[in-house]
Amino acid sequence: MFSKLKNLSFGPATLVAAAFIGPGTVVTASLAGANFGYALLWALVFSVIATMILQEMAARLGVVTQQGLGEAIRSQLQNPFIKWFSIALVLGAVVIGNSVYQGGNLSGASLGMAGVIGEHAAWLPLVLGMLAAGLLWNGSYRLLERVLIGLVLIMSLAFVATFLIAQPDWSAFFRGMLVPSLPVGSLLTVVALIGTTVVPYNLFLHAASSAQKWQSAEQLPQARGDLLVSIPLGGLISIAIVSTAAAAFFGQAVSLEGAADLSESLRPLAGDGATWLMAIGLFAAGLSSSLTAPLASAYALSGILGYGGDLRSLPFRLTWLAIIGIGVCIASLGLKPVSVIWFAQVANGLLLPIMALFLVWACNHKMMGNYRNSLKQNLLAAVVVLVAIGLGLRSIGAALQWW
Fold first, then answer.
1. Which of 54, 133, 136, 296 lies deepest, with the highest CB count within 10 Å?
2. What is the CATH number of domain 2-402?
3. CA-CA distance, 283 to 167, in Å (whole number)?
4. Whole-model pTM above 0.70?
């Protein structure tokens, strides 16, 4: 038992947790708790398990082949049509989509910072964008990993402490986690909760960062130990946010439209301390996603176009610089690029099941040698892929309806 415990540590999977706990997740989880109480916590438990299944395969692919997912797509797909279709999807969903979502990440971090300093200034997105750019320009994977580990720990402390201050109903809490239910009108919220955790660009991020962190298949136990710590910790943060909103607002006539509303509305219920903690957590969530979204995009694009994953290479830097720049403009000017977001949603809906299917195929390929998927892993992956297809269809349907 102790030999297994020594492999538990923080690593590339922390980047995945930092990526899926962003301002969008904070808003989605807050609304889930405010509207449906603790009833949808089971969806987060499921999403954490599904994420661990997919991300274990992504990490294993990176460690064993020393390639990112983008590089594996480029090297293994021989059919020109399928290859270029995959490249187009990656460009649409990961690169263009993340450029737009970066605006939301910087806006969320700015709201959190405004809650700490007491005022919201138009220059905050620019400063935070420059901070993210400075950390990425350094080109040190170890530095990025340490910063993101710190941000995940800050989020954990802030959101879990806020959850405890809000005094949850423990019986309803455990019932919501262990007994699946679908209250009237909750289906789209369940899809949103799962969709904010199981996201396609994290497959690129995890595979590439694992290839940089570990150089041989003998280090797979460390990669899996990292996964066992970081992904459940990210799930715990989401569960804490849902539960805080459930404890504070479920069954009350309180209207929440965003994370800032949640932070401010907690003041009369739980005092200034909870408001500060929520603001700090929102800042950490926004900044962590502001780092991981450009990083994942650069890994994906560089890998699939054959530029490699060197953090100091010019194509790599130009990719994340463009994404941060677009995000700063969107956050600073208050732009709402509806058409681009719609396009990104459709592309993401297509990308998740396709990338999940390719990942399963790659992990059964001869390039994996003795580390190919077992029957059990393939069965679990099949369940997750079916869910990914359902999420993808629902995402596309929602986007078309919106359009």
1. 296
2. 1.20.1740.10
3. 23
4. yes
